[in-house]
Structures are given as structure tokens and as C-alpha cells.
Amino acid sequence: MSLTPPPNPELDELKRYLRDRHGVDLSHYNRSFLERRLGIRMRHHNAESLGRYLKILSENKQEFPQLLNVLSVNVTEFFRDGALYDALRAKVLPVIERVSQSRSSREIRVWSAGCASGQEAYTLAMLLDDYFGRHSPSWKVRIYASDIQEAFLHEAKAGRYPKEKAAQIPPEFRRRYVAEAAGSIEVCPSLKGMVQFFKHDLATPPTVELVDLVFCRNVMIYFSLDSKDHILRRFHGCMASGAFLVLGGSEIILKSDLFELADDWHKIYQRIDQPHPGGDQPNAGARTHR
Ligand SMILES: C[S@@+](CC[C@H](N)C(=O)[O-])C[C@H]1O[C@@H](n2cnc3c(N)ncnc32)[C@H](O)[C@@H]1O
Q1: Which atom of ligand 1 is nearest to the CA of 149?
Q2: Ligand 1: does its nearest atom lie under 6 Å from the Cβ of 72?
Q3: Rounded to whole angstroms, how far apart are CA atoms 110 and 107?
Q4: Nearest CA owner, ligand 1 atom 9
Q5: In terms of CATH architecture, what is 82-271?
Q6: Domain topology for 9-71
Q7: Ligand 1: which residue has its CA nearest to atom 8?
Q8: How far is the CA of 201 from the centre of ligand 1 (A)?
Q9: Lowest CB count within 10 Å: 163, 169, 192, 269, which one?
Q10: Tell me, what's the pLDDT at 18?
Q11: Residues 77-96: what's their mean pLDDT?
């Protein structure tokens, strides 16, 4: 029995159009995800086929941003899956601290890859500032946060969110790191100063290096298996020795010689520093200094 879906020439044509006309490369995206998402826009226009939808897309300037919107599931929140952050504090940060001490580093680097409007990055900033502030106050924490969509990055940099989002933040952190104004909340300047937002497409090589912790949650859903594999290899190449990778609750690494499971429930993985010698990992283990 073949698991390969039948060819879909109309989808191929639409992908070609988006690549050639808008420079958007959908070749990495999971096919059923793409078909589901395109279906939303097709229904909106009563387009009975992808060919018909492509005609609408090419004739109507307003349609392209709408399509980008549905291709980007942008739901995010502060302290999303709260117990994950308890597990990080209890199990992961002490290991990162120990490993960093052993290489006499005083800087902790974290990358929130696919950060949407920034809540994940600010959550990590609060957690790490609190943890290292108590344990190793002279250490510097740097959070790198990237997304493919500039509109999200704009919102993220402003660090201002509707007031009702405050309830997602534990009261102690809220008191220390968030200012409440009429109708909105804003993360405090010291927190903003810890986070550097930048545009980055995960289908291209990373621009950060020697990272101690990578968060890439609820993003891999966009990618085909092959592309996921490439991304994991790139993560491995830019991570420090003994570093951790955290995926979304429903995302798993099926089989890898680059990462081992550290916490199954919370989908926390640890970098394997010396992957199997027969493996094909160009960057694996290449960096041993910071
Ligand atoms: C559901 S949000 C996840 C936000 C956050 N990580 C979380 O779990 O709450 C997915 C994000 O991935 C971003 N994204 C999608 N494709 C991407 C790509 N190729 N490179 C970088 N980010 C991408 C989207 O723009 C969106 O902001």
C-alpha cells in the first residue's frame, strides 16, 4: 500500500505562482496542512477548485495577505502550557546552569524560533531572569526571538497586549515585569532589553549560535518530514553542548541521532553532542566554544 498522496497539479501550480510572484516558498509545508488552509480561502470565495482560487489570487491584490494569514496559525500566549515552565525551572535550568559553570560561561542564550507576537519570548525572559537572578545574579540572559512574519515582530517589539492577557501571567511575575494601563498591559523595559527580535525563515540557516535552549513550539506543523529533519539538523548545529530543545505538546521527533528525549510529557529534548559517527550531520558537534 502506497502512502504517497496522488499528484495535485493545481496545488503545484499555485505553489509555483506564489514562489515566482511573491517569493513565498511553500515546498517545505506539509501537504495536508496546506490543503486544509487553502480550503478556508477557497470556501470564502466559493471557489470550487484550486485553479479557480489561483485566478482569484492573481487578480485580487487583497487576497495574498489574507492567504498568508491563514497559512500562519498565530495563536500564542504567555506561559502557554504552564506546567512546561515548571518543568523547565525544575529540570532544565539547573542543568544549563551546571554546564555553563563547567565552561565558565556567564551568558545564557535562548532562541524562541517562530515566536509570533512575542509572548513566548517574554515568558522565557521572565522565567530566566527570575531563576538566574536568584541563583547566579551576575549572569547575562539573552533571548533571541524570530518569526517569518514582520507584522508579528512589530507587535512583539512593542510588547503591548490587551489587558485580558494579564491573566495568563502568574501574579508574582505580573507584579514584577508587567505594567498595567487602561485597556492594555506592557512588559517592562528591562524585560524588553533582554529580548532581541528579528525576522528569520526556519527554512534557511540560523543566524544565532551556541544557544543553550531552543524553543520551537507549534511551528513544525508547517513543515514536511524532510524539512523538519533539516531544521533539526540546523538547530543541532547552532546549539551549545548539552543544550535543550523544546517542541509543542503535539510535536515529536520520530527518530533522531541528534536529540534524545529528556521529558516525554513536555516534549523536551537534549542535544546529543556526539551523534552516531555514521550519521549525516554536517554541523553536528562542530562548535565546542562560545
Ligand atoms: C502557532 S505560532 C507559535 C507561537 C509560539 N511558538 C507558541 O507556541 O505559542 C506559529 C508561528 O510560526 C511562524 N512560522 C511559520 N512558518 C515559519 C517559518 N518558515 N519560519 C519562521 N517562523 C514561521 C508563524 O508566523 C507563527 O508566528
Answers
A1: 25
A2: yes
A3: 10
A4: 76
A5: 3-Layer(aba) Sandwich (3.40)
A6: Chemotaxis Receptor Methyltransferase Cher; domain 1 (1.10.155)
A7: 217
A8: 9
A9: 163
A10: 85
A11: 95
Q: Which residue's CA lies nearest to atom 11 of ligand 1?
A: 114
Residue ranges, CATH 1.10.155, the chain: 9-71
Q: Is the CB of 152 under 6 A from ligand 1?
A: yes
Q: Kindly report the protein residue whose alpha carbon is nearest to atom 10 of ligand 1.
A: 219
Q: Is the dihedral of CA 265, 285, 127, 188 positive or negative?
A: negative
Is any ligand 1 atom within 6 A of the Cβ of residue 107? no
What is the tens place of the pLDDT at every residue in 22-78? Answer: 766 677 678 888 899 999 999 999 999 999 999 999 999 899 878 877 876 667 999
Residues of the chain with CATH 3.40.50.150: 82-271
- Ligand 1 contact via 120 beta carbon (within 6 Å): yes
pLDDT in tens, 142-181: 999 999 989 999 999 999 999 999 999 999 999 999 999 8
Separation of CA 156 and ligand 1 centre (Å): 13
Which residue has a Cα nearest atom 5 of ligand 1? 115
Residue 112 CA, closest ligand 1 atom number: 6
> Closest Cα to atom 3, ligand 1: which residue?
218
